[in-house]
């Protein structure tokens, strides 16, 4: 570069942002900042630091969003500093270039500077001063870990001399190396660390990127595929959209699967490995086959310096894990599967088998990445190797743990090809059947479970085979119930599977299997809504069946208790079996999720809305429990209804509907459609509400007849918002039905809607009706029941003020009644905000709930006041009621 070239760069810098080329590629940093904020807290802190004149290091693993965070912070800084000049440089491709290669474009006279460090530093300082002019100068460094040593030392000196303000991105593996560690240790720069993307952040980004909501299973699959990397997430979405693996249903993005094209992540991985030495590449080939593997095993295969190089390059990572014997071991694993895909293409199959055998013979370590274990075992099976049964089951357990049910099917299918017929094959069929249940492949699951039952029926019977057969019987009964929607036919299937045990019973004193079968029978009857079996179920929960088996009976029993109004007992039962389910998760994988669903409804029926929200909060490790994905969206929609957030409720329930369109595994489609009708009616979309009610009436109740009473209550609420004259007659019929079956809570809800509908037509409730409400209030637990009784009594007393107070308590307990007057021409958002304001919420609280600014909420309220002709929230409450 000549002196005139350097001056041209300097002159360009004074006009705005400069992108300085590096020896091998132009930095991607010149691209505009993305709109979606992946790491808002980091961006806020970084913006504040830069605005205060501080230099900063943004540290994280490859692809975690460091560049995006810096871009967003710089754009915010530009918005408040018109005189800001930004100069971009990148360390990519400079390791094997000339010393100071990354900074050479900044030098006024490179020829005079090289060879004399002092002259170089003076030239850099002078050049930066020229670029700064009368404004501010920010030097933005991408991939600072790739800078040559001379450039890194020069930057260190410039920052310490306060000659330039720097914001640099740096790999985590280099943060402890000079000069970067010393800079933040000496408080010369601020260090901001960016961790992997959480599942929650991934869902937010996907909804923004795709322009619509994403089903929970789709978000979870993409989050797992990305491994917490923002870059890999972006590429995974690109590949899925390009291959039509993602499609929109009802405005919601749903994963449909299919053949994936060559991922662009492979190109990025190849680029990332460009500077790795031949020794490092050979080490990566080994890691691609054997990882995850104990460090001492790996060091028998490759030299330690090569492993260190891969760690510094960000290709592999080391963690401490427990061994099966209770000790600890250092485990090496690849940071992304893309490195393995690239490297394995270079290795012959014979070499892969040789390397894998070394890894398979090593002790199994707990705590290693599940996806890596699955990958290595799958590769060994594909290569026709004899994989130890223990390692196969470790991989199967890992796949279940991270909800990769398609991986379970793949691994079990591969293992079955060489497994001997007998208990081992039966176990693999059972595991594959379990996975296919969660994939909603019920016909295939039924075939797997039938084959497992056939193999086990041949005997001999011992504790292990009987335990497995009882599990198969339980799952086969569940599949039959869900496929047929007929509990009697499902129980007939149960008898078919356990018939060999009955025939062998005289010589089978190995366990109390009769108790286990009874638990399965009562579980199905409970989900079928047979309240008459409640006492038997409570007795069985204290009986001799294994605790893991009793976990499956606890949820329908808690639901039956809740329907009967015994909500305190129901909650205590859920709390007790939540701990039991956690302790036996290896034996009943869906136990925690099933108990969580029962606890959710128990809290919802009790009116404990805040506790409901807490129960749905993301877990610390972002690992969801094993529940059917549509249930997650239905629960979020019901929570939004309880909070009066109608638009949010419609979004979640429409997302659930997109999943139910594919398969109704839980039998909750009818319930979810009815709840969505309530939200649509509350938003003023009467046509959609009526259509949803019609869809719900044509949807079979399936295996969730236990929810039919609550479905009917939701239907009453939808009819009330639609101002249908049928509310009274349907409420009367529901109350009679509930009384006949002993469903006190459902009867109380129905009688309340009857009284409220009578009030809206100008009538007065029958005193006998009010007396019955009082009687039910005495036997039904929970704050919501108390609020229902208080509202009925206020209405019966014709005390408008007391009724208004009681209705606000109902709002707090999750019930929002429609306005009493004629419909007003409010938008759905205005109606939503008006309802919340009438319920006593402040503008700030409404803004937090609906993810709006307080100013936006106040603007909506101003328009509502103008439309309704009111001047205060108190008047608003009067008008809406």
From TrEMBL:
Pfam families named among the record's database cross-references: AAA_22, GerE
Domain HTH luxR-type residues, every copy: 819-881
Superkingdom per UniProt: Bacteria
CDD domains: LuxR_C_like
Annotated keywords: DNA-binding, Transcription, Transcription regulation
Annotated spans, Disordered: 1-26
Protein name per its UniProtKB record: LuxR C-terminal-related transcriptional regulator
Species in which this protein is naturally found: Cellulomonas xiejunii
């Amino acid at each position: 570069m000549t002196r005139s070239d350097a001056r041209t760069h300097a002159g360009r810098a004074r006009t705005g942002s400069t992108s300085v080329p590096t020896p091998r590629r132009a930095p991607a940093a010149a691209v505009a900042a993305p709109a979606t904020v992946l790491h808002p807290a980091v961006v806020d802190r970084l913006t504040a630091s830069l605005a205060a004149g501080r230099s900063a290091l943004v540290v994280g693993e490859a692809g975690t969003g460091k560049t995006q965070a810096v871009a967003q912070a710089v754009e915010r800084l530009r918005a408040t500093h018109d005189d800001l000049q930004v100069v971009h440089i990148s360390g990519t491709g400079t390791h094997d270039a000339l010393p100071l290669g990354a900074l050479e474009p900044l030098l006024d006279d490179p020829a005079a500077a090289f060879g004399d460090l002092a002259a170089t530093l003076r030239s850099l300082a002078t050049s930066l001063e020229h670029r700064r002019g009368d404004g501010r100068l920010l030097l933005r460094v991408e991939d600072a870990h790739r800078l040559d040593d001379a450039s890194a030392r020069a930057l260190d000196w410039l920052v310490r001399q306060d000659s330039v303000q720097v914001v640099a991105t740096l790999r985590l593996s280099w943060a402890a190396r000079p000069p970067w560690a010393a800079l933040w240790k000496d408080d010369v720069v601020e260090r901001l660390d960016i961790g992997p993307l959480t599942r929650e952040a991934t869902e937010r980004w996907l909804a923004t990127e795709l322009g619509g909501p994403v089903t929970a299973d789709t978000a979870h699959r993409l989050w797992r595929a990305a491994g917490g990397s923002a870059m890999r997430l972006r590429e995974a979405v690109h590949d899925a959209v390009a291959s039509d693996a993602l499609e929109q249903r009802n405005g919601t993005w749903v994963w449909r699967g299919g053949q994936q094209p060559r991922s662009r992540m492979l190109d990025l991985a190849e680029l990332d490995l460009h500077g790795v030495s031949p020794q490092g590449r050979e080490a990566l080939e080994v890691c691609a086959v054997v990882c995850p593997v104990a460090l001492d095993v790996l060091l028998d295969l490759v030299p330690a310096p090569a492993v260190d190089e891969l760690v510094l390059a960000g290709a592999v990572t080391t963690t401490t894990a427990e061994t099966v014997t209770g000790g600890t071991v250092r485990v090496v694993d690849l940071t992304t599967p893309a490195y393995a895909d690239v490297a394995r293409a270079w290795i012959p199959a014979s070499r892969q088998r040789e390397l894998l055998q070394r890894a398979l013979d090593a002790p199994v370590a707990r705590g290693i990445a599940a996806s890596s274990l699955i990958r290595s075992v799958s590769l060994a099976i594909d290569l026709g190797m004899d994989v130890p049964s223990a390692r196969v089951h470790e991989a199967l357990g890992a796949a279940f743990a991270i909800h990769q049910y398609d991986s379970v099917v793949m691994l079990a299918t591969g293992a079955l090809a060489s497994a001997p017929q007998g208990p081992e094959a039966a176990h693999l069929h059972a595991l594959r059947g379990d996975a296919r249940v969660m994939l909603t492949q019920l016909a295939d699951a039924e075939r797997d479970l039938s084959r497992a039952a056939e193999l086990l029926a041949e005997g001999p019977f011992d504790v292990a085979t009987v335990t497995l057969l009882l599990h198969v019987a339980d799952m086969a009964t569940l599949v039959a119930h869900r496929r047929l929607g007929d509990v009697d036919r499902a129980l007939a299937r149960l008898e078919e599977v356990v018939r060999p045990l009955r025939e062998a019973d005289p010589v089978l004193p190995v366990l109390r299997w009769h108790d286990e079968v009874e638990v399965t029978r009562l579980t199905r009857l409970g989900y079928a809504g047979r309240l008459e079996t409640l006492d038997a179920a409570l007795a069985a929960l204290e009986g001799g069946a294994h605790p893991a088996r009793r976990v499956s009976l606890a949820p329908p029993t808690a639901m039956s208790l809740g329907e009967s109004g015994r909500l305190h007992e129901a909650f205590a039962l859920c709390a007790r079996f939540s701990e039991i389910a956690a302790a036996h998760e290896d034996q009943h994988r869906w136990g925690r999720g099933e108990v969580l669903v029962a606890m959710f409804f128990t809290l919802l029926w009790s009116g404990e809305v805040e506790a409901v929200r807490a129960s749905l909060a993301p877990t610390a490790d972002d690992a969801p429990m094993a529940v059917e994905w549509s249930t997650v969206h239905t629960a979020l929609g019901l929570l939004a209804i309880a909070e009066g957030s109608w638009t949010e409720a419609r979004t979640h329930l429409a997302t659930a509907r997109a999943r139910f369109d594919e398969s109704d595994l839980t039998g909750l489609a009818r319930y979810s459609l009815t709840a969505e009708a309530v939200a649509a009616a509350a938003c003023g979309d009467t046509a959609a509400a009526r259509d949803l009610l019609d869809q719900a009436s044509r949807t079979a109740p399936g295996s969730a007849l236990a929810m039919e009473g609550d479905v009917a209550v939701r239907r009453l609420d939808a009819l009330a918002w639609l101002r249908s004259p049928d509310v009274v007659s349907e409420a009367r019929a529901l109350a009679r039905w509930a009384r006949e079956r002993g469903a006190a809570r459902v009867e109380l809800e129905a009688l309340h809607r009857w009284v409220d509908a009578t009030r809206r037509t100008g009538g007065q409730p029958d005193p006998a009706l009010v007396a019955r409400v009082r009687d039910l209030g005495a036997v039904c637990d929970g704050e919501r029941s108390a609020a229902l009784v208080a509202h009925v009594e206020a209405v019966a007393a014709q005390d408008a003020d007391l009724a208004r107070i009681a209705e606000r308590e109902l709002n707090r307990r999750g019930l929002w009644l429609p306005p009493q007057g004629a419909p007003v021409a409010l938008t759905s958002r205005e109606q939503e905000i008006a309802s919340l304001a009438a319920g006593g919420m402040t503008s700030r609280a409404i803004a937090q709930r609906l993810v709006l600014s307080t100013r936006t909420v106040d603007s909506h309220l101003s328009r509502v006041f103008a439309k309704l002709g009111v001047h205060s929230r108190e008047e608003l409450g009067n008008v809406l009621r």
